[in-house]
Amino acid sequence: MILNVTGLTFTYNSHPVLDDIDFSLLPGELLAVLGPNGVGKTTLLKCINAIHRPKGGTVYVDNQDVLTFSPMKIACKVGYVAQRSEPSHVTAFDAVLMGRRPHVRWGRVSRNDLEIVEAALRRLGLINLSMRYIDMMSGGELQKIAIARALVQEPRLMLLDEPTSSLDLKNQVEILGIIRRVVTGHQVAAVMTMHDLNTALRYADKCIFLKDGNIFYAGSPMEVDAHIIETVYGLPVDVYHQGGRLLVAPKDEKSG
What we know:
By secondary structure, the protein is of the alpha/beta class. The protein has eight helices and twelve strands. It has a six-stranded mixed sheet, sandwiched between helices. Strands 2-1-4-5 form a four-stranded antiparallel sheet, covered by helices on one side. The longest helix is centred in the C-terminal third of the chain and has 17 residues, at 169-185. The radius of gyration is 19 Å and the shape is globular. The N and C termini lie far apart (46 Å).
């Protein structure tokens, strides 16, 4: 088991944000964390990555409590793609190379490190932008840079906060396909937060829906029904199963 979250509780300024969260991930599994704005999705990722210290409960990565990890060990084990990345005056190549820092020995970047960075840039279609400064890039390009940086860390666990938020439809499909292949091919685990239900349920192996800081539903995307979505989001929906996939659509107000 790569990730095991048990009884996780987090409070912010005496306000409970997460309460008694439990789930686990095996190698090769991709989990989608879903729910409305402000429900604690990003907070959950930050607790897993030890950016936030939970009020209670434990987070184990490879059977070790993340709160016992040094920052460098966390960087070796967990690749984190935040929702927004602040641009700075470095090239795309150097920005991705930063992800190799946990693996660099004696401050010397090896040929292998450079080849791993180049491969990641090629995989995300960024090789022609290698020498462009990232403060001259679009939001979608910056998102790809952040994902490439996480990939070159060669982590056991990837945490992705809205990984397709700045991307058009074509790039969304491309990025999620890459994430899916990395998770399966390298037998790592991944947790991603998303707002697009249809996209998330298409690519994820498991999903959890958060409501009022608790897990309202945890299980297979194919078992998600209208009652779950309507309760979590407060929106009437229709749920269809087509070709082994689940499709969610708001109900047509005209038809009642």
